[in-house]
Write a structure and sequence with these properties.
Blueprint lengths: L11 H11 L3 H14 L4 H7 L4 H14 L18 H12 L14 H12 L5 H11 L1
Helix pairs in contact: 1-2, 2-4, 5-6, 6-7
């Protein structure tokens, strides 16, 4: 097994303890726990088995912590398309649901997700499918 070539400052354990107390994201908390165990002297393969991690992932987090400090354990920005549904759009959809569907030209007093998607597209210009509207309502209601 390859030896770990990271050297930690004396205050690394206290820094990780503080990070564990202040971590709000579960992923960051888990990383800090695993790295703390390695810094405390436990073997990487033991810790990776305990936390159900790949050795390479834990090794990478340990090296990032050694180079960047606590910031190295936080999630980095990811590429990809930004989400279509913003907070404002979700609020607008919730307001539409609270209104009477007959106001928007529906044929009955019970609105469907397809009708909501059509009205939302007319009012905001954002095209969502009925399934996207249904999922959004399921999350917010």
């Amino acid at each position: 097994m390859r030896p770990l070539k990271s050297h930690f400052p004396v205050h690394a354990l206290t820094t990780l303890d503080t990070m564990l107390k202040q971590a709000k994201e579960a992923r960051v908390f888990r990383r800090a726990q695993a790295v703390r165990a390695v810094v405390a002297g436990h073997h990487i393969s033991t810790i990776s088995a305990t936390f159900h991690l790949a050795n390479s992932a834990l090794r990478q987090w340990v090296q990032r912590f050694a180079q960047e400090g606590p910031q190295g354990l936080r999630d980095r920005a990811r590429s990809g398309r930004p989400p279509k549904v913003t907070c404002e759009l979700a609020q607008h959809l919730n307001r539409l649901v609270d209104q009477d569907p007959l106001q928007h030209g529906a044929l009955s007093s019970q609105g469907s997700c397809r009708e909501l998607a059509t009205v939302l597209a007319q009012q905001t210009g954002v095209q969502l499918g009925r399934e996207s509207v249904r999922c959004l309502l399921k999350k917010t209601r």
